[in-house]
Specification:
This protein is an alpha/beta fold. 28% of the residues lie in helices and 19% in strands. Strands 4-3-2-1-14-15 form a six-stranded mixed beta sheet, covered by helices on one side. Helix 1 (82-99) runs parallel beside helix 8, helix 10 crosses helix 16 and helix 12 packs across helix 15 (577-587). Bound molecules: 2-acetamido-2-deoxy-beta-D-glucopyranose (10 copies) and zinc ion (ZN) (2 copies). One 2-acetamido-2-deoxy-beta-D-glucopyranose is lined by residues 179, 186-188, 221, 223.
């Protein structure tokens, strides 16, 4: 599965210079940005715990810098935009000064592939080139590279990141195990590690680690984490004892390789405080590897801003006793998952609606809004009659976006297609849907958030009797095959399965505890209900969990009403080609199908199907 490549937008117009940031309103629809939430938002449950050392964490923002703008549940809870976040950071820094404590800002990567602001650039543009300019305005202390930074090497992506973004955060953009090859020379994209002193004089050593990702483009290298910790530079970097190891990285804090890094540091420094800030699996998660460490992961898509505080001893002076009780007793950590909206931000900074905004925050908001206009993101395809969700409605059902796509495929792929006369079955994988489709205007930005993969469609001509067995066979693939598929997808950076497990788990827990009736009758609003391995309640605002329904790996259009021997078009998304051919050869034995039998079906890409349908049916 590919993410939007500039290839799909080939063209030679040079755009994206600042002087193109003029407001255009040819497509000025009712879809105005909800700068101030119209829904009544519940304030957080309790103030944050400030300690001597505090960190604000973002991860997997994927271009969601204008916040979540839909009015359906639970979107308004995440309506804060990056300008609001900037104002929040300004006020929090002020509070840190008043309290005379340390406050750092860190990010764990995946800056693009997710919204029109990063991916909706005009022909000739560069992915995330404009949105990153806003990201760069935030005073991040440490940033780590994500796998989404590595899908496309050339001038448009990693190389551009290397040239423009990295130098903006001198020494603080970390890629401990990720190299880029420039002019034939392999070198770290950012820095492998950094050492710095905080305002309060604490000595910090930081790494920026990427999970064992294998879907990276040529001319980039990802070194397995287990090999990285054996490098001599690594030993050198961690040798000297700092006041804190701040390990940032694009790697889930559970079920991944953080213990490898943690143990390597602990082998040298048995009691030095360690903070880990992870990412990638898009969930809220936390654990404590030992009594003097904590590992936090702060969700996705600017639906979560993470907070961690630790009661660290004062900076070392060099004259401490080697084993004072202070240096071995458990450290008190706290963590919190904030819903990013103005109500949350105002609550925690003690500001009101009229005092909260800073001129700098407002300028970021305005700049992002102008970028949305420049990219024509509110170009309207049609108006969605109701919400279509990935897992909040059963499949098949009217409210399932997967059912919608099963209906959309036979329409959108046959427009202007000479094969329209042939009966067909069309199959895609459910993972090609990345976000829910909410009621109301369905615009260019929504198309990019719901279906961001620019996969194409292929077909084989197959007797109906065989074609009709392929979808169920794909979904009933044996446990081994499914595990292989999962492993392949995971290595390539596909995380939706882990995210869905998390959603399923919170719905299951709620059902167990409250039963279906209480849940519906409760006074809580919908959202994430996190149960992690850290002490106390992590969610800043209590919620009831969203409904959850399991979904199949593959979905298909309705079978045509034809005889068994009618030869039909078996249309499928290119990404599943080899798997589909394998299945097809297992459900029939009349012919051995090979890749040579496969033909392109249409020029229409997976990114375009919903827009084509909406233009025809939702107006
Ligand atoms: C970068 O790669 C894309 C997709 O592979 C290609 O369309 C584009 O022309 C390349 N750009 C440059 C400057 O090489
Ligand atoms: C979440 O959004 C819903 C729907 O608009 C709203 O009623 C609720 O108050 C929000 N909750 C929070 C915690 O902001
Ligand atoms: C990879 O790097 C080599 C040497 O620097 C260069 O010749 C080649 O074009 C690069 N490949 C891509 C896809 O950019
Ligand atoms: C990364 O770059 C460094 C510095 O050029 C080099 O020593 C190292 O071998 C490279 N690592 C990989 C995995 O390519
Ligand atoms: C310190 O923390 C560890 C790990 O979280 C825990 O097992 C241990 O009981 C704690 N010790 C004290 C004295 O609280
Ligand atoms: C907050 O301020 C904005 C701008 O001044 C205003 O439009 C909005 O109505 C205010 N909202 C509330 C809840 O007071
Ligand atoms: C689903 O939509 C169809 C067509 O609009 C309608 O006839 C049917 O009643 C709907 N089903 C449910 C359960 O709402
Ligand atoms: C189909 O062809 C018409 C006429 O050439 C064109 O206006 C329309 O955009 C095409 N639709 C698609 C989906 O390619
Ligand atoms: C929900 O109801 C409970 C019990 O009536 C009450 O204690 C709690 O404050 C309510 N919560 C909110 C957010 O209104
Ligand atoms: C399927 O086609 C047959 C023969 O043309 C017809 O008799 C039957 O009613 C059709 N069934 C449906 C469900 O359309
Ligand atoms: Zn991500
Ligand atoms: Zn990722």
């Amino acid at each position: 599965m590919k993410f939007l490549a500039p290839l799909a937008l080939a063209g030679a117009v040079l755009a994206c210079s600042d002087d193109h940031l003029h407001a255009r309103d040819e497509h000025d629809h009712s879809h105005a940005k909800r700068e101030y939430p119209t829904a009544k938002l519940t304030p957080p449950s309790r103030p944050l715990t400030w300690s001597s050392f505090n960190v604000i964490h973002t991860t997997d923002s994927h271009g969601w810098l204008l916040g979540h703008q839909k009015t359906s549940f639970p979107e308004p809870n995440y309506s804060g935009d990056f300008g609001d976040f900037a104002s929040f950071v300004t006020h929090m820094k002020q509070i840190a000064l008043e309290k005379d404590v340390d406050l750092l800002l860190v990010d764990s990567g995946d800056l693009h592939d997710g919204t029109g602001l990063s991916d909706g650039y005009p022909p000739g543009g560069v992915d995330a080139h404009e949105s990153n300019k806003f990201f760069m305005q935030l005073p991040y202390d440490v940033l780590a590279i994500g796998n989404h930074e590595l899908y496309i090497y050339n001038a448009s992506r990693v190389a551009r990141l290397y040239k423009n973004f990295v130098p903006h955060f001198p020494g603080r953009y970390l890629s401990s195990n990720v190299n880029i090859t420039i002019d034939g020379v392999s070198r770290p994209v950012g820095s492998r590690y950094t050492k710095f002193k905080t305002r309060k004089g604490r000595q910090i050593t930081s790494l920026g680690v990427l999970f064992d990702f294998t879907g990276n483009d040529v001319n980039t290298t990802v070194q397995p984490v287990a090999d990285m910790v054996k490098e001599s530079w690594f030993a050198e970097a961690i040798k000297e004892e700092p006041d804190l190891f701040l390990l940032v990285g694009h790697m889930p804090v559970s079920e991944d390789n953080w213990p490898v890094v943690f143990n390597a540091v602990r082998a040298v420094h048995p009691t030095t405080p360690i903070m880990i800030f992870g990412g990638h699996s898009h969930i809220r998660d936390c654990n404590q590897p030992d009594g003097r460490s904590m590992a936090l992961e702060s969700g996705r898509y600017m639906e979560t801003v993470g907070w961690m505080s630790a009661d660290l001893p004062p900076p070392k002076t060099g004259f401490e006793l080697k084993s004072s009780p202070e240096s071995t007793k458990n450290i008190t950590f706290t963590r919190r998952y904030l819903d990013p909206n103005r109500v949350t931000y105002e609550y925690h900074t003690g500001q009101g609606n009229y005092s909260f905004d800073t001129p700098w925050g407002r300028s970021i908001t305005k700049g992002l809004e102008q970028l949305a206009v420049q990219f024509d993101l509110s170009f309207l395809f049609g108006t969605a009659p109701h919400d279509f969700t990935i897992s909040q409605a059963p499949y098949p059902s009217n409210n399932s976006v997967l059912s919608l796509v099963a209906d959309v495929l036979p329409y959108s792929l046959t427009v202007n297609n000479s094969r329209i006369g042939n009966p067909n079955i069309m199959i895609t994988n459910s993972g090609s849907l990345r976000f829910d489709l909410y009621a109301g205007p369905f615009d260019k930005n929504d198309q990019l958030t719901v279906s961001p993969f620019d996969d194409s469609f292929l077909y084989l001509t197959v007797p109906f009797s065989a074609a009709n067995q392929v979808l169920p066979a794909l979904n009933n693939a044996g446990a081994d095959e499914r595990r292989d598929l999962e492993a392949t997808l995971w290595a390539r950076g596909y995380v939706e399965s882990r995210y869905r497990e998390w959603m399923q788990e919170m719905a299951r827990r709620d059902l167990e505890r409250n039963g279906p009736v209480l849940r519906a009758a409760g006074n809580l609003t919908l959202g994430y209900v996190t149960a992690d391995a850290c002490p106390g309640v992590g969610d800043d605002t209590p919620h009831a969990p969203l409904a959850f329904y399991d979904i199949p790996d593959f979905i298909g259009s309705a079978a045509p009403n034809v005889s068994d021997d009618t030869v039909i078009d078996l249309v499928f998304v290119d990404f599943i080609e080899s798997q589909l051919i394998g299945i097809l050869n297992s459900v029939q034995s009349d012919k051995v199908y090979t890749m040579a039998d496969v033909l392109p079906y249409t020029d229409v890409l997976a990114t375009e199907i919903l827009g084509i349908y909406a233009q025809a049916k939702w107006n």
